[in-house]
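Components:
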Amino acid sequence: MNDITNQSLDEIIKKIKSKEISSVELTKLFIKNIENAKKLNTFVTTAFEQALDNAKKFDDNPNFDQLLPGIPLAVKDLFCTSNIRTTAGSNILNNFVPTYESTVTKNLWDNGAFLLGKLNCDEFAMGSSNETSHFGNVINPVGDKLVPGGSSGGSSSALAADLTPATIGTDTGGSIRQPASFTGTVGLKPTYGLCSRWGIVAFASSLDQAGPMTKTVTDCSLMLEAMSGFDEKDSTSIKKEKEKYSKNLKDNIKGLKIGIPKEYRVNNMPKEIDKLWENGKKILKDLGAKIIDISLPHTKYALPTYYIVAPAEASSNLARYDGVRYGHRSKKGKDLIEMYENTRSEGFGDEVKRRILIGTYVLSSGYYDAYYLKAQKVRQLIKKDFDDNFTKVDAILTPSTPSSAFKIGEKTDNPVSMYLNDIFTVPANLAGLPAIAFPAGLDNKGYPLGLQLIGKVLDEQKILNIAYAFEKNCKFNNEIKKWWV
Amino acid sequence: MVGMSKDKFDYFIKGDKDNYEVIIGLEVHAQVLSKSKLFSGSSTKFGGEPNKQVSLIDSAFPGMLPVINEECVKQAVRTGLGLNAKINNYSVFDRKNYFYADLPQGYQISQYKNPIVGEGKVLLDMPYGSKQIGIERLHLEQDAGKSIHDLDPSNTYVDLNRSGIALMEIVSKPDLRSPDEVNAYIKKLRSIMRYLGTCDGNMQEGSLRADVNVSVRKIGDKKFGTRCEIKNVNSIKFMQMAIEYEAARQVELLESGKQIDQETRLFDTKKNETRSMRSKEDAHDYRYFPDPDLLPLKLEPSLVDDLKKSLPELPDKKKERFIKDYGLNIYEANVLVSEKEISNYYEEVAKISDKKLTATWMMGDLFAMLNEKNLNISESPISAKDFAELIQSIKSGEISGRIAKEVFEIMVESGDNPKKIIESKGMKQQSDPKELEKLINEILKKDKGKVDQYKAGKEKLFGFFVGQVMKASGGKANPQLTNEILKKFLKK
Amino acid sequence: MVIDKEKIIHVSKLARISLDKKKSEALAKDLSSIFKFIEQLNELNTDKIEPLSSILNEPLRSRQDLISDGKIRDKVLKNSPKKNEEFFVVPKVIE
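Structure:
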């Protein structure tokens, strides 16, 4: 049996359908990879037994018409999975076993996939390097001392290291796209409301979106098709017909107008990022797209806005972790209030505490108008920037991160420098727009770099098509040597 | 029910130096009548086993999201319309953040800046005239669960059955001036909501509770004094007691030159006093912000119009109609419209019987009986149909008022219909002149001496003869006819 | 704005997170630099701007008034660190 774990999801599905490999064989190959990759610390919880059971069930009674026939998948540990521990990377949920399944994972399983395990992430998805997880750092397979990005760092690392054929993450300010770029993979944050948030541990409700993380754009379209869809249990889910992203994927982008926002050329941007961007423009132009210079004047305020809105919502979303109904409860404290204070102090890590305090502060009496309300006004301006420009262009091309993967510990002492990692990804969250990050080259150290396409509301198909065309014409090779084995 | 005879408002607190006026505003929490909760599909039924009406949403598990119950929205709109209030076509759900064991989310979903219902008004009929109480707003919010402190000496138990049930918070303007007005206001609100079917108003089950804001000021002062909020009082009696205690406490402070602290207080029903609730003080910064799990609530104008059209007749309108169509006085009309069920009963009887006589009998014997048996009108042992028959029998002269009282008693005991009782017990009034003449003739013959005295001028004896006739007829002699015949015979 | 230790302590009380002295000081330093960063927003005049009320331009969907949930006490209590057969159990609350 050939090791096909380094192939794309699309290729693997073909081999399952042609019965070149069974689901059980496939699952065993991934399990072997996972067991050999403990050094990367990507998995918080594995579900091997259950996965093999499901694989066998598939092989006994296969349905090849499904989108993801007999495919084992590991998912970010922010998705609640029935009877499988779900931690959100936090000590406060260390022992939490949901009795319910998130809508997005259920959609995957309904399309023929099954759970392989739960992937490490920044605590409550708050981080850009996966260094805030209670379960330790995740290593980027690209290099021993490198972070995999965050918060979906376990997902990006596991994908790049062939520990899962595809995966899903959540993206509140770049948590899918930034780790995808750090590992040379594809990540898409859908339009706000395209994927149900039901059953996903909430970070910032008005920004959170689940999305696919894959090796290729084709895989991305396939996963998005499987996971998305209207959910009546989520009041912010968009009611619309399901789209066939994979079937409709095409590489003809002639005549499409691509906007290049001048504000994304930030101070101190490394030359190689600039070069990457220029090269991206050239590739799209050569494919027949029109390149148009645009302006998104409020871009520089996106990150400060984000660091008010997201912590404010988080401070409230995380109030339910009080040790009463589930999760960690402190043994210290003589009354209810002390029990709360100790539980939350022991249960949350430093970054989560920082953000809860920021959020509590900006909402507190006397400060609401100056911070929270102000931020919601600026958010309006940021959204308007996009609305104005999307009358002129079909999509917007930007770099996805201001640098390649950095070293573990490099930015942990300075929260603001860590936050700056999300400078290019945050605007799409604030405006609720779809955005895809895809690999576009390597820097001079040989680390992957990515570009980002931001689309109009519900225009996922178009940005997938552009990325698909780009992928076909960009000679990007992300061969990763399996040094950890 | 109104029953006071005062015709001038006179509720003031006398201090040593000055007289004070009491200013009261109420925040009434009324449980919305709906099958399921505001944001989840769990049952709202009262009295279920602990934690058996709890979904993962009500217990705030990770990743759970609220979806609003359309009926609760309609109920709030109906109530708003019933309070003559402005319906806001755009309203927003906010999170009110605080920690408590029975608040699983760590926040209550409520409406802060943009409530679903704006200003309205309620009319009270006080003995000193009618008084209008302003409504500031009405908003929808979630109820909390219940902490039980007395089942275990060292622990508190938490039951989340109530968690997430829809409440309407109805905030009055500080227009109330006495415990009596509070009594009338709560009863009026309750009556309106029961007419509308939006809240059952059951105070024992906690469906209606109030936070009471109390302040005092010297008579003549324009500025309000510092107010205290007495939390979560669940009966009218306790509200009245709390107000009296609190107003006296505040006056005492002012008279001794002390300041009143604006604070949240608790009414201790055992000691009959209010005391400071320190535990709530440090958690007072609620950090309201729009709930990002929900979108703004936009009401279609057509929905509001439809609800308006389907609104039942409300007590104020019904009262006017009762006065106009049935010739009742204000007092009677007020009593008979106070509860929808009472007014229905009345109309059912009155449409086929004498209007005025029905009112008299309902407010007299029927209510006295219900009161004594501690029943409400829908549990009355006498159906409206039977009651109507009774009234008709009185009106037609078939039975006398005195006999009617006996028939009424038997109806209550046996549940039988009045016709049957009158027949079987031979209680029909004796109205045949020939029969009566025969009877009277015999009586007069027997007491010839008294007849002579009467004829000699002792006219007081007339009553004696009537009594004898009644005695002999077992009370069944038609009084009017008896009078006529007696007069005729005694003239001879 | 400089966030001092007192403010940190006040906010941590509101957020029900106990902090020791060292942590309060570290957080005061972190938050001061973060607030300096977010206060860039003050450069913008937003007096005439409406705050964003929702990123979605959709009406709020509602559900029918049906009893479709509840009756899952075992599931609801299952993960609780302290419970009995019927209730969640917490340290005594003094009102």
